[in-house]
Fold these 2 entries.
Entry 1:
Amino acid sequence: MAKKIQAIRGMHDVLPQQSPRWQFLEDRARAVLERYGYAEMRTPLVEVTELFKRSIGEVTDIVEKEMYSFEDRGGDNLALRPEGTASCVRAAIEHALLDHPQRIWYRGPMFRRERPQRGRYRQFHQIGVEVFGLDGPDVDLEVILLTRRLWQALGLDNLRLELNSLGDADERARYREALVAYLLAHQDALDSDSAKRLHSNPLRVLDSKHPDMQAVIAAAPSLLDFLGETSRRHFDTLCAGLDAAGVAFQVNPRLVRGLDYYNRTVFEWITEDLGAQGTVCAGGRYDGLVAQLGGRPTPAVGFALGVERLIELLDADCVTPGPDAYLVAVGEQAQNQALLLAERLRDSMPGLRLLCHCGGGSFKSQFKKADRSGARVALVLGEDELQQGTIGVKPLRHDGPQQQVAIADLPALLARPDTEPTPAAQHASTDQ
């Protein structure tokens, strides 16, 4: 036998029994985003590598270690996108979308060659939001309120919000100097990754999860102490807005981003139910990125949420387990007419999820497949039913007798959760 080919490590198939949870999340997210006036943008999976080097930075782990980059046959240096913001900014500049404020959202796969573990994969999926052209704390508040509404739509109540301000570039530069000086005084206590980041990306040291580093991090200078009046007012206004909206949050002065284009607001939604990979949504303001990628200076704010991590948190009952009905056909003539009847039923009941049996088989084997499908009822079409314009309706999820009903009465019957026949259906059954 030929050797089996398996999926690449860290890249997973979404199987038919799993996809309803993905669809549930995507549908709820789209509905919430449309209510807030956000329009969808779809960007390519492959971009020129320079886009991510200029946006993320050449001395970051993503670019140095994790990005899938390659030279194509034409000699161009390309990369699978490791995140969505840079692509959205590139598209907004390229297509001249920044003449007025834009609220956009995106979804799709991202790629990073990390060590696969729970909640961290080499192909992972994000849903993200980007707002261009608005610089006030009110839009920062809006994107956070939007995420809260999404958690409500998904039935998630086990998330907490952490918040910080990175200030503006000059404030962060002064903080960086103070932080480097502090870390140099504690250099012997730094783990290997923090020692490498000391001069290239010192704010990322505050992200370290190494247990021996926590005391050093806790005693480090706070960026909030370096904020000027304008940045402090922006942050205080945002916090007051969250209080007024009833959103609980915790100010975390160690919450940072390692990229220079971030400024002022940064936030994360975190759960304790996923172990070490507990951040399910991260966002912030990045007023410097548009200019960094060749556009005119444009304020911007956004977030990205991890689809796989959120799916793990969804309740098992969040999706419908199967079709509404499974059509069983008994006898050669009934089997020949089954697909045509199924089409007529779908025409008359636009919302009906109907699975029609194909491939023949005995009545018993068809009923077994109907039960395994997860359908609420089996619809039984035999030679007698075909002649009389009726159909049998047999509940599959609870005990109950099979009822004979007129096909015209099926919509009203299937709309009832208990599938008990209506008086009209009983009357039709009695007459026949």
Entry 2:
Amino acid sequence: MQFPGVKALDNVDFSVLKGEIHALVGENGAGKSTLIKILGGVYPPTEGEILIAGKKVNYTSPQEATTAGISIVHQELNVIPYMSVAENLFIGKSLPRKRTGLVDWFKLYQDAKTRLTVVGLQDLVRQPVGRLSVAQRQLLQIGRAVSFGAKIVVFDEPTACLSRTEVDNLFTVIRNLRDQGTSIIYVSHRLEEIFELADRVTVLRDGKKVGVYRTQEVTPQQVINLMLGKELASEGRRMSCMTDQVILRVEGLSSDTGVKEVNFDLHRGEVLGIAGVVGSGRTEVARLLFGVDKPTGGRIMLDGEELTPHGIRKAIRAGIAFIPEDRRYQGLVLNMSVKENATLVFLKNLARCGFIHHAREKKVVGNLINSLSIRPPEANRLTRYLSGGNQQKVVLAKWLAGRRPKVVILDEPTQGIDVGAKAEVHQLIDNLARNGAGILLISSDMQELLNLCDRIIVMVRGKIVKHLNRDEATANKILEYAMRKENNIKYA
């Protein structure tokens, strides 16, 4: 598969057996997304052919791919929230109708119940999809794929927004599909999932197939080395550079988004982690600090001065940067170039008499591309065509194009990116801290928190339940507090 100036896939042979879970791994930019889009009918291949059950197939759209027997369960949930589960299930299909031509709602719901029994949503067919959890919406997509005769189901990062319990439920559904003869292609950056779930794994690097391996015959470290083409040094705990100077103080912060009397200090040079399960209030705290949402009580002090009234513009001017969890829709303008995204926040600094100083802009963006190793190093490339890891680097670049921020809030900064890009983001976090910034790190990756953080705050349902120092923080201890019920909450 070739794009102008870029060969995304180079003579890749890939096969999956009937009733097999086959993992597909590689760094961001290795060609996984392109291969998935070819299989799903989004892109036509420029070379090669696709065979299903030994027969060559040709299709030019996702609808034709589905008819041929291939369905994609995308990371971005393809649902219409104000329509019912049953209606979403039949999107793109003919609805059952009465002789009068009107929709036969009774038959629609009965048919949906039958089709969704395989994923356990049979009792929710009348519910608006907007009321479903993320995990239930994911199951709806799976139900849509398998209930209309898919022979091959492709899962693209399906667990990115799921809790461990929801992941376990999803894995049960996937294993049941395998046992019924459905072939599964599973794409994930989480190697622990690959080795828990998959029978075989295909490794891609730079658009080429490196090899195919049974998961019982290789180790996670060997797969990482194959993905990178080199041995990645094991990452230990970073050296602390935390000072005694408090740069951010939060006192009694509360909001109608569920945050309740949150208190903490962030020191210059510190990486302060926020742990908790989905819905614990971590992201809500970040949004309050950045001025996206308004607090109903409490104070936010930056360098000893209270931020009030608080809003996004004031937060930026004060020196607060925010890298949101959803980089594609909250951190970037996908139809704008790397250059345009990177200079978006501090564009005024690059203007002279109301006009952009293009030579200065080119120099600033060029330096950022080089320092952050953004690939490909093309300032005019649209960000929608970058891999996830490189998109995240552009989000980070946006805050480094002007003066260095005092406080950097990162919400799941390495979610959905490969191990190489993850190590680079970790190094950038360390560099920012060593240059004097205070870092607030929200992450569901336990090892990431333990490796990077000087202290860790644990939240449950909008409250801080525990402050853990670097020496006392362990995965078991964090989970012990994060999983406590609300009636057991005590401030610590």
